[in-house]
């Protein structure tokens, strides 16, 4: 299973970015897909997650600014990030909790990370 991310970059405060993450390989069922981030000197934290029943959860710090969505047919998750702040600067990692085959148990898979820098 591979998770391939795209969409990071440099943006000014107040700007927007859209992250994408596509899962490929042996996939039987995806239970949830989401985004975590890790800033220098800090622990990795959950940003947003979209679960298979259509629900989603967000970190308090991004509520109202970030929107997560999934395209189940494409095994892809997106995150629209608006009103970006310097404190959003971090490496953003895609996460998928999925079952690889009918005899497997669910486990977490991670993307390689994409840098988001918010600076003037």
Keyphrases for this structure?
120 residues; 7-stranded mixed sheet; 4-stranded antiparallel sheet; 0% helix; elongated
Structure description:
- The protein has 120 residues and is mainly beta.
- The protein is 0% helix and 56% strand.
- It is built from no helices and eleven strands.
- It has strands at residues 2-6, 9-11, 17-24, 29-38, 45-51, 56-58, 66-71, 76-81, 90-99, 107-110, 114-118.
- The strands form two sheets. Strands 2, 4, 5, 6, 9, 10 and 11 form a seven-stranded mixed beta sheet that branches. It has a four-stranded antiparallel beta sheet with strand order 1-3-8-7, with no helix packed on it.
- It is elongated and about 50 Å long.
- The chain starts with a strand and ends with a strand.
Helix count equals 0
Amino- and carboxy-terminal Cα gap: 37 Å
Pattern of helices and strands: EEEEEEEEEEE
What proportion of the residues form beta strands (DSSP E)?
Answer: over 45%
β-strand number: 11
Class from secondary-structure proportions:
mainly beta
- Contiguous runs where pLDDT drops below 50 for at least 5 residues: none
Largest sheet: 7 strands, mixed
């Amino acid at each position: 299973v591979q998770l391939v991310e795209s969409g990071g970059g440099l943006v000014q405060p107040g700007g927007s970015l859209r992250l994408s993450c596509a899962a490929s390989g042996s996939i039987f069922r995806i239970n949830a897909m989401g985004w975590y981030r890790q800033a220098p000197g800090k622990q990795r934290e959950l940003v947003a997650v979209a679960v298979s029943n259509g629900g989603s959860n967000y970190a308090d710090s991004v509520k109202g600014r970030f929107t997560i969505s999934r395209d189940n047919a494409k095994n892809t998750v997106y995150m629209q990030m608006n009103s970006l702040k310097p404190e959003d600067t971090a490496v953003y990692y895609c996460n998928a909790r999925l079952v690889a085959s009918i005899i497997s148990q669910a486990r977490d898979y991670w993307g390689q990370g994409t840098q988001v820098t918010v600076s003037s």
